[in-house]
């Protein structure tokens, strides 16, 4: 069974690694083109490319998978099966029809919920307590294909997108390897998705990253950890971007405001101390534990507040 693997970020690496360790023939790897990264904007290969080159695998990096020359390049490897995991492009019908066993995708949600490009981040932002991975046959729509199997993975208050990416990438690799023998012999199930239950997880925008302090403490807490460690959540302080990388999980004490805090506008700094920075929210307060002022490195919120002499009454927004 000749496999062409398509994936781009760290999420996809365990699936590719698992295929190789189990002795499957990976004929080629398809990934996104190298992109500029970091402050110096240096051209950087995606994690899947770096791993594939370490293992001596051929790598294709088409800008557009729909381009005829890209389809032809994949066809030259005569795949029996195409496996994708967070590749980042929708495959055209011409690619879906190439392998005799079809194309399967390792998707980071419990379909039909959270179809789209940011299922892990948005499940955390939405406050879900459980997510998972779905192994599915690919179709022309956005994550609409028949399902083969799913596995659930809990989300705790300590989890961020970073920790969930790691957990789900390993769970996805295990699920793929568990079902590959049945994909090979044609006995894997095909369970249609119930489109009436579908929800969507579009890629995050700049506005998704901004903290709106009139929202509840729990909503803000979920947003911060859902954006960590990728883009990060932000607000404004004195007209400059002020990133928030960590907060304390809100509890009943955060909803109990002192009388002098009741009239404070959402976004107002209520107090600072060794615990961090307490900020007024729509239903109480939220303690910031890690922040990053413009042009500086991230640091504990208590350290920043002490050094900047951040005064109660300062408004973030």
Automatic annotation (TrEMBL):
A single MF term (Gene Ontology): methionyl-tRNA formyltransferase activity
Gene Ontology cellular component annotations, sorted alphabetically: cytosol
Reactions that this protein is recorded to catalyse: L-methionyl-tRNA(fMet) + (6R)-10-formyltetrahydrofolate = N-formyl-L-methionyl-tRNA(fMet) + (6S)-5,6,7,8-tetrahydrofolate + H(+)
Domain Formyl transferase C-terminal: 204-308
EC number per UniProt: 2.1.2.9
Residues that bind (6S)-5,6,7,8-tetrahydrofolate: 109-112
Domain annotation Formyl transferase N-terminal: ranges: 1-178
Alphabetized UniProt keyword annotations: Protein biosynthesis, Transferase
Family under the similarity heading: Belongs to the Fmt family.
Role played: Attaches a formyl group to the free amino group of methionyl-tRNA(fMet). The formyl group appears to play a dual role in the initiator identity of N-formylmethionyl-tRNA by promoting its recognition by IF2 and preventing the misappropriation of this tRNA by the elongation apparatus.
Listed NCBIfam families: fmt (TIGR00460)
Annotated protein name in UniProt: Methionyl-tRNA formyltransferase
Organism: Cohnella xylanilytica
């Amino acid at each position: 069974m000749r496999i062409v693997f398509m994936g781009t970020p760290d999420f996809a690496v365990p699936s590719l690694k698992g295929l190789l360790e189990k002795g499957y023939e990976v004929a080629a790897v398809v990934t996104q083109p190298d992109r500029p990264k970091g402050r110096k904007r240096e051209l950087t290969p995606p994690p899947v490319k770096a791993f594939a080159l370490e293992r001596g695998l051929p790598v294709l990096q088409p800008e557009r998978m729909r381009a005829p020359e890209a389809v032809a390049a994949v066809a030259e490897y005569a795949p029996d099966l195409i496996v994708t995991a967070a590749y980042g492009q929708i495959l055209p019908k011409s690619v879906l029809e190439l392998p005799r066993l079809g194309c399967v995708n390792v998707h980071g949600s419990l379909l039909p919920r959270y179809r789209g490009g940011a299922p892990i981040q948005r499940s955390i932002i939405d406050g879900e307590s459980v997510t998972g991975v779905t192994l599915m046959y690919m179709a022309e729509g956005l994550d609409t294909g028949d399902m083969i199997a799913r596995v659930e993975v809990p989300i705790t208050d300590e989890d961020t997108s970073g920790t969930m990416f790691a957990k789900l990438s390993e769970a996805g690799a295990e699920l793929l390897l568990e079902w590959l023998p049945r994909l090979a012999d044609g006995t894997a199930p095909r369970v249609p998705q119930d489109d009436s239950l579908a929800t969507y997880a579009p890629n995050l925008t700049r506005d998704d990253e901004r903290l709106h302090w009139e929202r509840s403490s729990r909503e803000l807490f979920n947003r911060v950890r859902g954006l960590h460690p990728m883009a990060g959540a932000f607000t404004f302080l004195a007209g400059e971007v002020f990133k928030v990388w960590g907060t304390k999980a809100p509890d009943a004490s955060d909803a109990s405001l002192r009388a002098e805090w009741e009239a404070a506008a959402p976004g107002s700094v209520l107090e600072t101390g060794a615990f961090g920075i307490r900020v007024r929210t729509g239903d109480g307060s939220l303690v910031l534990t890690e922040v990053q002022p413009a042009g500086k490195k991230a640091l504990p919120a208590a350290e920043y507040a002490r050094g900047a002499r951040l005064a109660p009454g300062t408004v973030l927004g």
